[in-house]
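Many groups now describe folds with learned vocabularies. In that spirit, our science desk offers one protein's residues alongside their backbone shape tokens.
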Amino acid sequence: QVQVVESGGGLAQAGASMKLSCTQSGATFRIRATAWYRQAPGQQRVQVAGISAGGIPNYADSVKGRFTISIDHAKNTVYLQMNNLIPTDTAVYYCVAYTERGGTWGQGTQVTVSS
């Protein structure tokens, strides 16, 4: 059973950068893809970025040009580099790892952007 742990959240001012990490361990089945979601208070959880095991990324329109997702296979870690943060990026950010058995979610990490 894969375990997923997010880290790197915190408080930032608008215009700053922040890098989130998603470390995966214990996978019995190959991880086929990883995605980052976020959930703001009172709103639904939405995907902001995803990456295949082969390194092909995709992004939500709201973060294109500002966020970059990447994967380090040697460290079993997927990163989300967030640049030019804006207050509406404030949310709990979740990482999900997909295997052929489905998705495993982490506990989330809070990102707060002040204006």
Remarks:
- The first strand starts at residue 3 and ends at 7.
- The mean pLDDT is 94.
- The two ends are 40 Å apart (CA to CA).
